[in-house]
Amino acid sequence: MKYQARLLSTGSWLCGCLVIMLMAANPVVPEASMFNGTGMWLALCVFTGLYILPMLGKLIKIDYGYYLLTGWLAINLLLFIVAGVPVVFSVGALGLRLLLGVTALLGLIDLMFWLPQALVPERPLQET
């Protein structure tokens, strides 16, 4: 069960990174595209750091990682829900809009499988 939780965490991280990149490439106003800009890379670094930090808790045997990651993934739901705004209102390329919508949907499905595991008493990311 611990490995399934790690796999789902990695899946939500990958979907989140893709959503950030696709939202930067497909803004509501095409002239405001910030793909490959400093803001996109900073957002990806912060996003990745917020996933790595709870995983470090396991390495140094601190129990905070499980709770941090559960809270972060719950907040991450908002990212996938907000990603629907450019899908609906964007005037950008249809392919980018569809890819963003599919990626956000995959991220939501991934989190819907992960969050019930967070509620089990065994704490799937920690060694017991």
Automatic annotation (TrEMBL):
TM region(s), chain numbering: 34-53, 65-89, 95-115
Top-rank taxon, per record: Bacteria
Keywords: Membrane, Transmembrane, Transmembrane helix
Protein name (record): Uncharacterized protein
Species: Loigolactobacillus coryniformis
